[in-house]
Specification:
Elements: H1 14-24, H2 30-34, E1 37-44, E2 55-57, H3 59-66, H4 69-72, E3 73-85, E4 91-102, E5 108-120, E6 123-131, H5 133-140, H6 143-154
Parallel strand pairs: 1-6
Antiparallel strand pairs: 1-2, 3-4, 4-5, 5-6
């Protein structure tokens, strides 16, 4: 009896969508990462400072932001991952750690994140990413630029 061919199911749950994002990041498929967002989806970075955006609105703005990620960081692995459900079935809290190499310096990096992720109809509607801007700037090889931007902000 022949096996029935089944198409792989599209991720629908927030944790599944996030795991798909983590498959695409090391592959540097930023267009596919951006396609995980709803057309009017939002990415927020509450701890962002300097030239880093605090909020991106819409899939295309998120796509534009992601375009340069592979030029900064070469993410090689997800060193830790924990997904916690919330009372809202559309929202999960994700703690994760990425590891790889800084493109500019070839130095290894390890970054920790906490993400609050809301998904509707299989697409991200809100991605609230809590990370250390100092650790991220160090990992991207642009810590001196961040320090300069912070100094300029403080002197205004």
């Amino acid at each position: 009896m022949p096996k029935e061919h089944k198409e792989p199911k599209e991720p629908k749950e927030p944790g599944e969508v996030f795991r798909r994002l983590l498959e695409l990041m090391p592959a540097k498929d930023m267009d596919a990462v951006a396609d995980l967002w709803a057309q009017d989806g939002i990415a927020e970075f509450p701890f962002a400072v300097g030239s880093s955006p605090r909020r991106l609105s819409g899939r295309e703005e998120i796509r534009g932001h992601l375009t340069h990620y592979p030029d900064l960081m070469d993410m090689r692995e997800v060193a830790a991952l924990s997904v916690r459900r919330t009372d809202d079935p559309n929202t999960d809290i994700v703690e994760w750690t990425s590891a790889g190499h800084t493109v500019r310096t070839s130095e290894p990096y390890r970054l920790d994140y906490v993400v609050v992720l809301t998904v509707r109809n299989g697409l991200i509607t809100l991605y609230r990413d809590f990370w250390s801007p100092v650790a991220a700037a160090h990992a991207a090889g642009n810590l001196p630029e961040l320090v300069e931007a912070l100094h300029e902000e403080a002197s205004r």
